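User: Can you predict the 3D structure for this chain?
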Amino acid sequence: MLIELIDVYKYYVMGLTTIKALNGINLKIDKGEFISIVGPSGSGKTTLLNIIGLLDRPTKGKVILENKDVSSLNDNELSSLRAEKIGFIFQTFNLIPNLTAKENVELASAFSNKVRDSEKKALELLKIVGLEDRANHRPSQLSGGEQQRVAIARALMNDPIILLADEPTGNLDSKTSLEILEIFKMLNKRGVTILLVTHNMMLAEEANRILYIKDGKIENEVKKSN
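Assistant: Here is the predicted structure, written as structure tokens:
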């Protein structure tokens, strides 16, 4: 078991109102899975991703990462785990404008002790996502799809145990979205575990397992045979 959530609740207090973002989530994720999470806006998809990615803490419940309960770790311990274990891809690419594609990918290694030759690995990852010839271009010289490919390469820099993608194609056209999906499928075939939040059902259907979330609960789950 790679990751397990046990009876996870997440509440946010806003003034006199308590928002129940997650309402009793039980979830097991095995190594090598490709899972998509779908549901209406405000259903808890991003909150779930943030808790799995150790960006947020549950109000109640346990998060088990590689057989270790990480629910009570302090902020520094969680930061170290994130850097070593989790790769993030967001709708906005979050690239540093004055750095090249290669330098943006290399930057991830600054938060981890895993990578020995960061420049060599960055170039290898850019080749995997089809951008080896754009390594020395800055974000302003790249298309949206190319910037997202750089973000994917950066997320892979520290060999994470899981790749978390939150609406990674939300700012991209249909053709580019499919190209990004093909990269995810290729990475998954290489053994990368992927968790994808998306409103795009065409993309969601390509995962091996689909979680349907509503009102902070997993309402339905579909597993597809490989």
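The chain has one domain: 3-223. The first strand starts at residue 3 and ends at 14.
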